[in-house]
Design brief:
By secondary structure, the protein is mainly alpha-helical. It has six helices and no strands. The protein starts with a helix and ends in an 8-residue tail after the last helix.
């Protein structure tokens, strides 16, 4: 709350807090709150026109995990693919554990093999 009063609700520092809260809610299987927090995080990032970074890739990965758990498998695939693209833009090697895990998630989900 203090951050929103000082810097405004749409500030990147608020987005970072939303990301952390969304992550915690996802770990606690509180999918409804986690989804709302991640969506708000993404909205702020889009409005701020922030360059893609590792935090954004992590948020997309976690949002994909959440969507898979709630039956939105096609949306999960889209978010995992977007996260993979960000990691590649950040010059992560194909052998990096984060990229390997993303590929495994995509292959494990129905029709994941279509996305390569």
């Amino acid at each position: 709350r203090i951050r929103t009063l000082v810097k405004g609700y749409n500030h990147m520092s608020v987005a970072q807090v939303l990301f952390k809260l969304g992550s915690l809610n996802l770990r606690q299987n509180n999918y409804t709150d986690a989804k709302q927090l991640f969506e708000e995080y993404m909205r702020i990032r889009a409005e701020e026109e922030a360059d893609p970074d590792e935090e954004m890739a992590q948020a997309l990965t976690l949002m994909g995990d959440l969507q898979k758990e709630t039956g939105e498998k096609s949306k999960a695939q889209i978010n995992w693919s977007s996260a993979q693209e960000i990691y590649q833009q950040l010059d992560y090697p194909d052998s990096h554990p984060k990229l390997r895990k993303l590929r495994a998630r995509q292959k494990a989900s129905p029709f994941g093999w279509l996305l390569k």
